[in-house]
Write a structure and sequence with these properties.
Length: 463
């Protein structure tokens, strides 16, 4: 049988000019409006490594990396070859009444990086990994409570959203999962107070919070692990964004010598092509979930161990090792953080540069000079966090750097590039940030004219 019109790459070329109209009619119209308002609708045509190319062939440096999924860069040849090899092999995928060879290989390789844990459970995404961890913790401990940190982000499915306190995500979807309690990030006293009832199944925490790039004190994570042991609570590290080398270690918890009871992975593990999430856990926990043959499938997910996802994970780990990307993330991240930090004394709108490896936050804040303060207050009164768009938009339009704020209403721009960036790329970032931040200190000026446009848009939206 001959099939026609199945060249999807040709379909992409033929229909790309209609991408906005198709999304407006059939998908998310509001996203289209956002992109057009801030001038990001350039029609990207190609991705290669750390670079994107628009409809005119202009090259951009991608500091979002698909929210961290492209740690090894876009369209890595080793990953593509791994996926092609699976497709060409006619493997017996998803038999279900069988066990997956490639899932076994990926589990074995992942657990070598986390030697204190014994078992792996695969899911389709980070949010699914969070959902599994919540179920595992409650079942293993017989307790209902889950404690999480303020300003955390753990996903948008119902259980994960219940551990994410941002009202921008929660509004309209409540009531959420009962038994979930928020404490301030980096507050051991509050954590102990929450755990003292001995009704808490698990404490879940991002070692570095993605929304804001907030780092804990050196005492927090080791202290949290000790408190969890004291009160019989499981300690879950959500490494969905920080894991797989992002912070210059395979896991971010390694910076604090902590060994959680569960580690959650996703994003970078996919190589950017086939979604995959993982829960790595202690055997003692796993065995309480799958404790009898009639409970062998008490939790699962239809596509979780599909061969393409497992191959993507295996290939990603191979590339990370072969190209020494964990070490590169540490080295390039230190260089970039230092270069950006050196700018802080020279610009009153810059407050702090923080992060580990290639997870870096550049925070801005209220100025002291009267002229800048008046302009800042005008923006903030229209929409909290709007100032950062005066940095990200010119970075994109004038310097071809794709980045964004680290969360709704945030004053922090997050840099989350592929771990493959070069010394030249870091210089590109440094000079571009320097130029745009310098321009933001000139009032009146082109950047503040952009600010007036954004304020007008914000006022119209709220009217």
């Amino acid at each position: 049988m001959v099939y026609s019109n199945l060249d999807v790459s040709e379909m992409f070329v033929d229909r790309q000019a209609q991408r906005s109209s198709m999304h407006t009619r059939h998908l998310n119209e509001q996203l289209v409006r956002v992109l057009k308002t801030i001038g990001y609708d350039v029609g990207f045509q190609k991705g290669q490594g750390q670079y994107l190319f628009d409809r005119d062939g202009a090259r951009y440096l991608d500091l979002l990396s698909g929210f961290g999924v492209f740690a090894i860069g876009r369209n890595h040849p080793a990953l593509r070859q791994a996926l092609k090899s699976v497709l060409d092999a006619d493997l017996p995928n998803l038999v279900q009444l069988d066990v997956s060879t490639l899932a076994g290989v990926l589990a074995e390789r992942l657990l070598k990086y986390v030697p204190w844990l014994d078992k792996a459970f695969f899911a389709n995404s980070g949010a699914e990994a969070v959902e599994a961890a919540v179920k595992f913790a409650r079942c293993a401990t017989g307790r209902p409570g889950i404690v999480y940190c303020a300003h955390a982000y753990h996903g948008l499915s119902y259980g994960a959203l219940s551990l994410t306190d941002d009202p921008n995500f929660r509004n309209g979807f409540e009531p959420l999962l009962p038994g979930c309690t928020s404490i301030p990030f980096d507050d051991l006293a509050a954590l102990e107070q929450a755990l003292a009832s001995r009704q808490v199944a698990a404490f879940i925490v991002e070692p570095i919070q993605g929304k804001g790039v907030n780092l804990p004190s050196n005492e927090f994570l080791p202290g949290a692990a000790a408190l969890c042991r004291k009160y019989g609570t499981l300690f879950i590290a959500d490494e969905i964004q920080t894991g797989i080398g992002r912070t210059g270690k395979f896991l971010a918890v390694e910076h604090w010598n902590v060994e959680p009871d569960m580690v959650l992975l996703a994003k970078a593990l996919s190589g950017g092509h086939v979604p995959v999430g993982a829960v790595l856990t202690r055997k003692s926990i796993f065995d309480k979930i799958f404790n009898r043959m009639d409970r062998a499938v008490v939790h699962g997910s239809t596509f979780a161990k599909n061969d393409l996802a497992m191959a993507a994970g295996i290939a990603t780990l191979e590339v990370m090792e072969a190209e020494k990307l964990v070490e590169q993330a540490a080295r390039r991240g230190a260089e970039l953080k230092l270069a950006l930090t050196r700018m802080v004394p020279g610009y009153e709108l810059m407050k702090e540069v923080r992060g580990k490896g290639l997870m870096i936050g550049v925070e801005f804040g209220p100025p002291k000079s009267l002229k800048l303060k008046a302009s800042w207050n005008l923006l903030e009164s229209a929409n909290k966090g709007l100032f950062c768009q005066l940095i990200t938009v010119p970075l994109f339009k004038e310097h071809k750097i794709l980045t964004q704020v680290s969360g709704h209403g945030s004053h922090t721009i997050k840099l989350l590039p592929p771990l493959t960036i070069t010394e030249e790329d870091c210089k590109w970032i440094e000079t571009s940030f320097d130029a745009v931040i310098a321009a933001s200190h000139k009032v009146p000026g082109a950047i503040w004219s952009l600010g007036k446009t954004l304020v007008d848009n914000a006022v119209r939206q709220s009217a």
